[in-house]
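Propose amino acids for all 52 sites.
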């Protein structure tokens, strides 16, 4: 488990009101939270945005 994935997981448990949007930085595909590799292009550059 990568550090960012761990941090996102902890944040999601601590704050149910702060949604996290994850998307591929390479192709822009929105992916499920916790995804480490884009299912569309195969890149491992997943950006996570915390929406407040």
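Proposal:
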């Amino acid at each position: 488990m990568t550090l960012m994935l761990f941090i996102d997981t902890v944040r999601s448990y601590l704050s149910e009101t702060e949604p996290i949007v994850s998307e591929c930085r390479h192709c822009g595909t929105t992916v499920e939270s916790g995804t480490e590799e884009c299912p569309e292009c195969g890149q491992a550059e997943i950006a996570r945005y915390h929406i407040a």
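The CA atoms of residues 22 and 33 lie 6 Å apart. The helical segments are 3-14.
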